[in-house]
Amino acid sequence: MAETYRVGLLGHGTVGAAFEQLLSERAEQIAHVTGVRPEVSGVLTRSRGDFDAILADSDLIVELIGGIEPARDYVLRAMRAGKHVVSANKLLLASHGEELWSTAREHNVQLRFEGAVAGVVPVIRVLQESLAAAHVDRIHGIVNGTTNFILTEMARGGTSYEAALARAQELGYAEADPAGDVSGEDAAAKMAILARLAFSTPVTLDQVIYEGIEHITGEDMAYARDFGLALKLIGTAERVNGGISVRVHPAFLYPGHPLASVNGSFNAVTVESDAITEITLSGPGAGGPQTASAVLGDVISAMIPPASTPETTQSLPVVADVKSAFYLAMEVDDEPGVLAQVAEILGMQGASIKSVVQRGIPAGRARLVMVIHPLLESRFYGAVQLLARMPFVHAEPRAIRVLDEEFTD
Amino acid sequence: MAETYRVGLLGHGTVGAAFEQLLSERAEQIAHVTGVRPEVSGVLTRSRGDFDAILADSDLIVELIGGIEPARDYVLRAMRAGKHVVSANKLLLASHGEELWSTAREHNVQLRFEGAVAGVVPVIRVLQESLAAAHVDRIHGIVNGTTNFILTEMARGGTSYEAALARAQELGYAEADPAGDVSGEDAAAKMAILARLAFSTPVTLDQVIYEGIEHITGEDMAYARDFGLALKLIGTAERVNGGISVRVHPAFLYPGHPLASVNGSFNAVTVESDAITEITLSGPGAGGPQTASAVLGDVISAMIPPASTPETTQSLPVVADVKSAFYLAMEVDDEPGVLAQVAEILGMQGASIKSVVQRGIPAGRARLVMVIHPLLESRFYGAVQLLARMPFVHAEPRAIRVLDEEFTD
Ligand SMILES: NC(=O)c1ccc[n+]([C@@H]2O[C@H](COP(=O)([O-])OP(=O)(O)OC[C@H]3O[C@@H](n4cnc5c(N)ncnc54)[C@H](OP(=O)(O)O)[C@@H]3O)[C@@H](O)[C@H]2O)c1
Ligand SMILES: NC(=O)c1ccc[n+]([C@@H]2O[C@H](COP(=O)([O-])OP(=O)(O)OC[C@H]3O[C@@H](n4cnc5c(N)ncnc54)[C@H](OP(=O)(O)O)[C@@H]3O)[C@@H](O)[C@H]2O)c1
What we know:
2 copies of one chain form a homodimer. The first copy, chain A, is α/β, with parallel strands linked by helices.
């Protein structure tokens, strides 16, 4: 039986409840990986729990209350008591970050906050660790899922801002009071944190210039389409003239830009630096389960020694024959009935045709190209062998896999 | 004067030399961040240096020799001597990973290998840390820059495989002997490492089924365009029927797939899991400076305590007025000369028009929409104020930023 690692949980709302559930679902696997079983040792809300009792009974504190006070006080007290802290509180970090980070350094504890910025997109870890000594020139980010969802709706459906916002609220992508998101303030707090980490210079929320999306009209979208542009709420942190600029505003992007194709409630961040050119990270933005997953990643990191590759926990069989969709190209006689025979041979092996193109080529032949729905590769190659032996098939049929359609947007 | 952290460097080829240079360039900044100054304490090649002397004189060993022996022997001896090791050797890890990882656990040292898989794309760190306890369902990756460059050339230019390969060699994206890359073996080694980490089950290179791109023809590309597909060399590691499948082969992707737009020598990896849906990481693939940057990130991580946010090292001014390109929409009188006057007013503020669309709307008016080349925002808004006061301008002009064209592909 593994030892227990006690996690004190402050806040039990959207993220807190999702975190508690995810922790219990993954406890077994975490015990395998870390050798220690994490367990919620106490929960604090406005109506239950006592902070001092929870603190005394925890190895690590997770803060998911939000706002400045009492979150700030609790986080400081936890670190002063020598406990690691994981928080998803962007407002707190963007306003009082220096105080918190210096307290962490002083008391030699970890303060992790991946969940505060871009949901499951691991931009904090990458900035703080992979790029710890890189000279970052610029960060661009879509760091608010609500506004990206609204803008995507407007672009897709030609919908008005109001209608798109209503739809976002209906689907749970926007809160009843969406002001913090649509005004750009939420994104501004996140960009303040990213700028601080990238440039090693103090940046607080009140230094970030921001503009929201409330004034964007369907007409702006329509005219932008004429120019082939995509409209996003973009956060920028960059070096300019020996200083830095940190800002959030709607911006049109050319189609080649890595953020132009980030749609719906997804978040994405690009980091530019000489040595690395540019890396892009993207994934689902905020939301209870996503943020909880980022918080859990932080908790586990605090539990395990760095850069350890745990023992394998299982020995899964390696399967050789899997299902794939295929592209199949053949040179055949250009005669009636050939396509029907090809379809019949494919059908015998369970292969069905999704789409087909036939084109005449010289010497009474035709090039037949088709996409085949997913099936076991062994059966598909069986059909190809049969086809290769047919008198109306010339040269070896050519087969290339097609990644399954389930990924299409 | 900061204390010294001694880095023993094994191998001084493409990556080794780039690493030594990057380390000396970034030493100052690293000393700021970690409190300790890294320094190459010795270099081993076939013609210089002595391994035992370098080992005795180092806090950490960087292995950039490649191949199995003597790299394996050196890495094992370094860890047994209690030294952390950073390696970019995919072949070694894909063949002898379990032996190396268990030695690291046994001797309580770090073995880091970000540079082995996808250049600067931090997929190892994300899998091992952010997603340490996630239940990963599938990984798709473009993990070989050479083949992605060749396929991109073929798709763009309608070039043959041979011509695209020659071009890749000319530009340094492919080696004189490209067999390891174009056969899919390099990608297979990387997928073996990713599968091992994602599924906690032993996977070695010889268990990976791979197929290369040597047989892809320009005709395949042309017909694929008819179906709207992109062709990539895709590595897959996924759970199937209680086992796993790990394979590499060319595959067509639908345009909505996050890997479909990864072009040139870039690498990208998507990780799918219930809790996170899907995250995508992309950036420049292998290459001397890129791999060196990943190796340096690993070295720094071994030097600093986890999750520490170092003190700010500077206090950069926050600049408010920056240059932006703009979209500008106005309702104007539909009369001759209006566009000329608008252009003149913009020109007075240094704003020049990149493109413009004018459309008649009811009541003798026109909608004038343009994109303005980058200029200081203060000057642009100055022009907008002037325009707003003109008798031929009706309603407030609407301005939205456009992200600079320098990002277009
Ligand atoms: N929701 C998201 O998608 C998301 C995404 C990223 C980051 N975050 C961040 O995660 C944090 C939590 O967000 P959330 O959406 O989970 O908030 P929430 O649903 O409003 O939950 C807040 C929780 O904190 C408790 N709480 C509030 N004030 C308290 C106090 N004075 N003392 C003790 N407990 C108190 C509440 O208790 P009661 O139950 O008694 O009211 C509730 O359980 C915030 O910092 C937020 O910015 C959220
Ligand atoms: N090149 C890339 O873009 C790239 C990208 C990702 C990962 N990697 C990995 O990085 C590693 C190094 O690659 P590379 O391209 O830098 O290789 P490289 O240019 O061939 O350099 C290899 C270096 O190792 C030295 N070496 C070889 N055998 C040795 C031995 N028996 N004893 C001592 N030194 C020996 C060589 O010494 P001499 O100078 O005396 O020949 C040379 O300095 C490989 O594992 C490779 O897979 C490379």
